[in-house]
Design goal:
- The chain has 389 residues and is of the alpha+beta class.
- It contains ten helices and twelve strands.
- The protein has helices at 7-21, 36-39, 64-83, 89-118, 129-136, 189-197, 209-218, 255-264, 272-282, 304-307, and strands at 147-150, 153-157, 173-177, 180-183, 226-229, 232-237, 240-243, 317-323, 349-352, 369-371, 380-381, 385-386.
- The strands form four sheets. A four-stranded mixed beta sheet has the order 10-9-8-11. A three-stranded antiparallel beta sheet has the order 1-4-12, covered by helices on one side. A three-stranded antiparallel beta sheet has the order 5-6-7.
- Strand 5 (226-229) and strand 6 form a beta hairpin.
- Helix 1 (7-21) runs parallel beside helix 3 (64-83) and helix 1 packs antiparallel against helix 4 (89-118).
- It binds fe (ii) ion (FE2).
- Fe (ii) ion is lined by residues 13, 42, 101, 105.
């Protein structure tokens, strides 16, 4: 799968990040292995050329033991650097960025290994058997689709006093919202199944032109991890193959599918500004208390009745209809790290919310994730919006 990377690559790459952006400028630092610069550089052209992403899965060396050796080597030197009494603020800021970068890769480890396990016709489970039981457990009924009403007006958008934000969340600025309403929960598997059974994937009027092309080219007829069996669907999860839970939120959809569903339902996707304003109005600004990466629960989105909250943060990445672009006055950070976010501001859409695979501390209302509109392997779902009745 061209977008996914092996777990070992993620570990080596996050280590490479610390080595490249911090240790290489320390006088006397001895590079661990010169060849890693090419192999574990993801996309930083200012640093140098990169090994092709779509071939990362073919690399069997360095093995895990060597990657761990690399990790310990870099960790030790980063600790020395940070513990220096006069460690400059600029250095500490890059250490912090490196930690947030690592959290992003912790999530990718889940989404990438899920895709790899799905490729095995035995549908192996990532979680232990006890986890599988919870994944397959009957979800309580989802609440009716209730709505947050917004009269419109000027709202504050972006990162403010938070201890950390990526450059793409800044500067803080105002946006004008039109009157609208936004759903208090995401679309469920059961609701999405109706769309499928009513021929949603076969009717071009619901699809953007590029989406319709992909649906036909790739033969899409259901979400990525659904598997038709007889008259029913089953769903591949990190607990292996499970019964489809009608009340759990539907996930692993592309932007095109989310948009087509919304059109079929007579609604639309929210803008990222509508989403952020509603999230701030309705939530504490943090992932729910027993977020699964802080618990032993299986990594799978849950029904809002189970989590006891509206699940704005920490269940699913929710597609918005906002193209990923710069906020007014946006400036990428200086140097090679400016490549982190800014250069991707073309042909991608913003997702908000953070998923069940996102570390709880990594989630905030201003956070902007972004993926091309055909990406399906993240835990991505649908929250509807429309104009007031
Ligand atoms: Fe990275």
């Amino acid at each position: 799968m061209p977008d996914a990377s092996p777990t070992r690559w993620h570990l080596a790459h996050t280590t490479w990040f610390f080595e490249t952006f911090l240790l290489k400028s320390v006088p006397g630092y001895q590079i661990f292995d010169e060849r890693f610069e090419y192999l574990f550089n993801s996309y930083y052209n200012s640093v140098g050329q990169q090994f092709p992403r779509n071939r990362r899965g073919q690399i069997s060396r360095p093995d895990l033991a060597r990657v761990l050796e690399y990790r310990y080597y870099v960790d030790e030197r980063i600790q020395q650097l940070v513990l220096t009494p006069d460690c400059p603020l600029a250095v500490r800021n890059i250490v912090e960025l490196g930690l947030h970068h690592e959290q992003q890769h912790q999530e990718l480890i889940f989404t990438d290994i899920k895709h790899a396990l799905f490729g095995n016709p035995m549908f192996p489970s990532y979680h232990q058997a006890s986890g599988a039981k919870e994944c397959a457990a009957d979800m309580p009924a989802a609440r009716n689709m209730d709505w947050h009403q917004c009269d419109g007006g000027v709202v504050e958008i972006g990162a403010d006093e938070q201890p950390f934000s990526f450059d793409n969340e800044t500067p803080c600025h105002t946006a004008l919202l039109q009157p609208h309403r936004i759903a208090l929960r995401c679309v469920t598997n059961g609701e999405f199944e109706v769309f499928i059974r009513e021929g949603g994937y076969r009717q071009p009027e619901y699809w953007l032109s590029m989406g319709w092309q992909i649906v036909n080219q790739e033969g899409w007829s259901h979400p990525l991890y659904w598997i038709p069996m007889g008259d029913e669907y089953r769903e591949f999860t990190l607990c292996g193959l499970c019964e489809l839970q009608p009340n759990a939120p539907v996930c692993h959809l592309s932007y095109f599918e989310a948009d087509a569903y919304a059109r079929w339902a007579g609604k639309r996707l929210p803008t990222e500004f509508e989403w952020e304003a509603a999230c701030r109005a309705r939530s504490s600004g943090e992932a729910f208390a027993d977020h699964l990466l802080d618990s032993n629960l299986p990594v799978h989105p849950r029904c809002e009745v189970l989590t006891g909250s509206e699940n704005w943060l920490g269940n699913l990445w929710e597609w918005t209809n906002s193209q990923y672009g710069p906020y007014p006055g946006y400036r990428p950070v200086a140097g090679a790290l400016g490549e982190y976010n800014g250069k991707f501001m073309c042909n991608q859409f913003v997702l908000r919310g953070g998923s069940c695979a996102t570390p709880g501390e990594h989630i905030r209302p201003s956070y902007r994730n972004f993926f091309p509109p055909d990406a399906r392997w993240q835990f991505s779902g649908i929250r509807l919006a429309d104009q007031p009745e």
